[in-house]
Structure formats: structure tokens, C-alpha cells
Amino acid sequence: MKEIRMVDLNGQHQKIHTLINNSIEGVINSTAFINGPEVKNFQKSLENYLNAKHVIPCGNGTDALQISLMSLCLRPGDEIITSDFTFIATSEVIAFLGLKPVFVDVEPGSFNISPDSIKKSLSPKTKVIVPVHLFGQCANMDEILNIAKENNLFVIEDTAQALGAEYSFSDGTKARAGTMGDIGTVSFFPSKNLGAYGDGGAIITNNDDLATKIRSIGNHGMEKRYYHNRIGVNSRLDSIQAAILNVKLKYLDEYNQSRQKAAAFYDKAFRNLDGITIPHRTNSSTHIFHQYTLTTEPELRDPLNAWLAQKGIPSMIYYPVPLHQQKVFSNYGYNNKKFQVTGSLSRRVISLPMHTELDKEQLDYIVSHIITFLNNHK
Predict the structure, then answer these.
(1) Out of 150, 188, 225, 278, which could bridge 200 as a Cys pair, Cβ 3.0 to 4.6 Å?
(2) Domain range for 244
(3) What is the pLDDT of residue 231?
(4) d(CA 136, CA 291)
(5) pTM for the structure as a whole
(6) CB within 8 Å of 143: residues ≥ 6 apart
(7) Is 66 exposed, middle or buried (0-12, 13-18, 19+ CB in 10 A)?
(8) Same domain as 209, residue 181
């Protein structure tokens, strides 16, 4: 049996290495390393894939979030509502810009931000909602967009883990993750469903004015060369990464289907077992399984994590500490009672290997050892 990896980037690369090598060589031969034709080609390809008006490539997913917030003319102290159960990048940029992250609890099934918790956290200073489409499944965008409209708020979708997921609105219309709010942000970190061979990111919007501002902010505040209209940053997707991503984008749906197939295998094995709960699927969103995350009984999570390590099976805890409990945010004085679901999940979740190259032998091995563990702990 092949070594089991949390993410098998090498196995994925071997299947497309000729195309990748040719694309890299093309950039090197052209010497158009910054803002070359491959960047524009990838931008257009992703716009077509998402059916979005504007895709603005940038240096990474964190920059995408920061630049998006910078484009909204916010003031120090303005409040930005976001999920308590996610990676820190989403809230890190909020605090960095002198804004106030307002963490809210998540739904126990989907792990995504709770619309009811959003409503309870609204204040006159609230300006933006940043839902995170966690683990590959869209948040409840019907409710979130309604809340935003009723309260004149912006919505920035953090789509770092859900590129390719599709949301079905209650009126029957559908849209890709990242295209529903005012702005969507994407990370192309190598382990993402669409991963570069280094850092990369993009910003999505259907708003022409925001697109102009975002492009300017990401390029030192310039709209015309050497004429600086606003304070900006230097955040660009380099041509080599764009060339790689343009190859891999053609396979994204296939990659996501491979993950869904592996998830279905896990589901069938684990659905009726005591001690663990399989990931919940909402009726409104497809799930592309950036992570396959089980919820265990609290006393089983850490022993299961250790057992899997002994058997050569990698696993990860996403996320062991809620954001409101992180030392860096301790000055905000959050009350743990407001985050009952997040607190529970942080003690119970465990993510299994999930990638495009998992084969039946590996999946059988993973499943059998988890079942053995559970049988031993009845």
C-alpha cells in the first residue's frame, strides 16, 4: 500500500506533470514573470468557470481578504462579523486594519456561521459580514444576504476552502461559492482543492467600481502607472503560478468529484457507528470536501487521533482553539457562553485524509482501523 498522506500533492502532480512542466517552461522562455499573459489567461478562465464578472489575482488568500476590506472605505472601530470556528487569517486582517472582529457561533451540523448568531451580534457599528464556507460547503447565503440587505451591510465570502462548490438559493437559482456576496476571496495554497505550487490568491466581484478599487489597491494604489490614487499594497499572482493554476483549473471539477467519491466511501462505513458523526450535508450547497471532518464524543477525539498516528494514518484537528479564545484576541473579553457550538466542536472534531489520490486500499485501511478503535472503546 502507498503511504497515506493527509494531502497527496505528488501523486496529483504526476498525472499532469508534462502539462505543468510545459506551462512553466513557457513562462520562463517568455521572461514575463510579473503580470504576464498567463495571469490574464488564468483570470479569464476563472471568470468563465465561476460565471463572475471580475477576478483579480493576488499574492495569497490573506491578501485577498485584506485588500477586499481596504476597498470598502471602512473606519477604525467598524465591526466585522465573522465565524469563530475557522483559521485566523479571516479575522487577522480585520484586526490588522484597525477594525473590530466580532466572532459569532456556528451551526453544529455544517460548521458554518449561524445566521441567528449574526442577528444577535448586529450593532450600529456593524459594516461587513464575512461568512467562511468551511471545509468545502457554502454557508446559508439566503439568510446571510437577507440580513445584509436589511441592515445595509457588505458581504465578503471567504471561499478559501470551497472553490467549485455550488449554492442553490430558495428561489431555485444557483451560484458558485465566492460569487454571491459583494466580494469573494480565494486561496490557492498548495493543499487547497485548486492549489498552486506556492502561494496565490484571487478576489472575485461583480461590482465594476469595487473591481477598479481592488485592482488599484493590489498594485500600490495605482490605476494609471505612477499615479497613486489611494494607499495600496503590492500583491500579485506571479506568472508561473498562474500558468500552473490555469492547467489545474481544467481538472478542478474532476478533483472535487474524486474527493466526493472518497467522502461517500467514508460515509457508508461510518454512518451508523456509535461515537462518531459523519459530516452534515445541507440541502442548499454541494460539498467539495476540502476536509472530511468527523465529530466524535469528546472523550474519544484525542485517543482516536493518537491511535491513527500509531497506525500510520495522518489526521488533523481543525480547529483546536476557537478564535475568541486565542491569546491575540484576549483584549476583546469574549464570553465563552456565547460560543457553545464552537467550544464543543473544538473538543470533538477530527479530519481524515482527503485528497484526489486516495485509493480503495488506503480507504479500507483507514476505515478498518477507525472501526477497530471504536469497537475497543465501547
Answers:
(1) 188
(2) 9-104+112-249
(3) 96
(4) 7
(5) 0.97
(6) 115
(7) buried
(8) yes
Q: How far apart are CA 147 and CA 129, in angstroms?
A: 9
The last residue of one of the domains, among 249, 279, 302, is: 249
DSSP class per residue in 130-186: E-B-GGGB---HHHHHHHHHHTT-EEEEE-TT-TT-EEE-TTS-EEETTSSSSEEEE
**346 neighbors 321 (Cβ within 8 angstroms):** yes
Q: How many domains does the chain have?
A: 2
Residue 130's domain is classified under what CATH number?
Answer: 3.40.640.10
What kind and span of H or E run contains 359?
none
CA angle centred on 178, ends 174 and 179, rounded to 5°: 55
User: 205 and 339 share a domain?
Assistant: no
Low-confidence stretches of the chain (pLDDT < 70) are none
Q: How far apart are the C-alpha atoms of 186 and 162, rounded to whole Å?
A: 9
Q: What pLDDT was estimated at residue 378?
A: 80
Q: Are residues 230 and 273 in the same domain?
A: no
Judged by DSSP in three states, 351 sits in strand
**How many whole angstroms separate alpha carbon 195 and alpha carbon 162?**
12
Residues whose CB falls within 8 Å of the CB of residue 313, separated by 6 or more in sequence, listed in order: 4, 352, 353, 365, 366, 369
Who contacts 25 (Cβ-Cβ below 8 Å, separation ≥6)? Answer: none
β-partners of residue 61 are none
Ramachandran area for residue 154 (φ above 0: left; ψ -120 to 50: alpha; else beta): beta
190 within some domain: yes
Predicted confidence (pLDDT) per residue in 275-289, tens digit: 999 999 999 999 999
Strand order in the sheet with 54-58: 54-58, 201-205, 183-187, 154-158, 126-130, 79-83, 100-104
Asked, for residue 46, whether it belongs to a domain, the answer is yes
Domain contains 217: yes
- For the record, the C-alpha cell of 185 comes out as 476571496
Cis bond before residue 319 (omega within 30° of 0): yes
Q: Is residue 3 part of a domain?
A: no
Do 134 and 164 lie in one domain? The reply is yes
Are the C-beta atoms of 282 and 344 separated by less than 8 Å? no
**First-to-last C-alpha distance (Å) of the chain:** 29
Q: How far apart are CA 184 and CA 180, in angstroms?
A: 8
Q: Which of 249, 276, 301 is the last residue of a domain?
A: 249
